UniProtKB/TrEMBL annotation:
Protein name: Biopolymer transporter ExbD
Membrane spanning stretches: 16-36
Family: Belongs to the ExbD/TolR family.
Annotated InterPro entries: ExbD
Keyword flag Nucleotide-binding: no
Cross-referenced Gene3D superfamilies: 3.30.420.270
Heme listed as a keyword: no
One Pfam family cited in the UniProt record for this chain: ExbD
Organism per entry: Spectribacter acetivorans
Membrane topology: Single-pass membrane protein; Single-pass type II membrane protein
Compartments in which it is found: Cell membrane
This protein's UniProt keywords: Cell membrane, Membrane, Protein transport, Transmembrane, Transmembrane helix, Transport
Length: 132
């Protein structure tokens, strides 16, 4: 007659170690992924809108401050350098523009016409969603 094998008690540490490993891997992932986002060198407060659609984060963002400073991809640029850099971007058909709400509309309109003249056919103005 065969006797049953004694049941081995599992130590609780055996169950916790894989969980700790996963938490550390997630922590490292989010630290690396968070460092990939570039910020504008100055603060920009975009105007609000009543509806919102998602913006594509893969495209470059042109930030415009209230006093007319320009930044493309985190680099501060002069207006002439901006149009030169936009002409170099072959194949890009969309540029996202994040303009401060304090920027005069006439300056924004002039800049948008310069962007179109530089060969960017589509421009997306980014706004802040202010839902009710």
């Amino acid at each position: 007659m065969l006797l049953p094998l004694p049941q081995r008690r599992r130590d609780t540490e055996e169950n916790i170690l894989p969980l700790i490993n996963i938490v550390f891997l997630l922590l490292i992932f989010f630290m690396v992924a968070g460092a990939l986002h570039t910020r504008a060198p100055f603060e920009v407060e975009p105007p609000g809108t009543e509806h919102a659609d998602g913006s594509n984060p893969d495209n470059h963002v042109l930030a415009i401050s209230a006093d007319g400073e320009l930044a493309l991809g985190g680099d501060t640029l002069e207006r002439a350098a901006l149009t030169a850099r936009l002409r170099e971007r072959e194949g890009d058909t969309l540029l996202q523009v994040k303009a401060d709400s304090g920027l005069p509309a006439a300056e924004l309109t002039e800049l948008l016409s310069d962007i179109r003249a530089a060969g960017i056919p589509r421009i997306r103005l980014l706004t802040v969603h202010r839902g009710e």
